Amino acid sequence: MISKRSHHFYAHHGAVPTLDDLKLALMAEPQEPAVVGFQVFVADGGEEVGAVTGVDSDGLVVYVENAGHYHVALHAVESVHHQKVILNCAKLSRSLRRAIGHAHDAEVPGL
Predict the structure, then answer these.
(1) Residues pairing with 39 in the sheet
(2) CA-based torsion, 36, 38, 41, 43: positive or negative
(3) CATH of 4-101, one of 2.60.40, 2.30.30, 2.40.10, 1.10.760
(4) What stretch of H or E contains 12?
(5) How is the beta sheet containing 50-56 ordered, strand by strand?
(6) Model-level pTM?
(7) DSSP structural state of residue 42
(8) Is 54 exposed, middle or buried (0-12, 13-18, 19+ CB in 10 A)?
(9) pLDDT tens, residue by residue, 28-73
(10) What is the H or E stretch that residue 23 is in?
C-alpha cells in the first residue's frame, strides 16, 4: 500500500509503486501516493501527453498539455513504472482522447 510512510520509502530507496500498489492505496486511503508528478503516456515509449496532478478515490487527475485537467478512472491505467503512468487509450473518454490527440499542437517544431 502506498502511504505517506511508503512514499518516503520510495523516495529514499528508489522503489517504484506498481499499478497494484496504486489501486490498493486508493482503496485503503485516498491520498497523494508517489504517482503525483509522474508523466502520462498512452503508449510505453511514446510521447508524453501530460502529468498526474492528483489522486482521488477512484482514479487519477491528469493535466493534459494544452487542454487542462481530466479525471482518469483506475480501469484506464494500464501500468505504472519508471515514473510513468501508461493509459489504455481505448478505455478513455472521447473528450480525453481528443485532448490527448491535440496535446502537442502548440509546440513549435525545432524549439
Answers:
(1) 51, 84
(2) negative
(3) 2.30.30
(4) helix 4-13
(5) 68-73, 59-64, 50-56, 39-41, 84-87, 77-81
(6) 0.68
(7) S
(8) middle
(9) 544 445 688 999 999 888 888 999 999 887 889 999 988 899 999 9
(10) helix 19-28
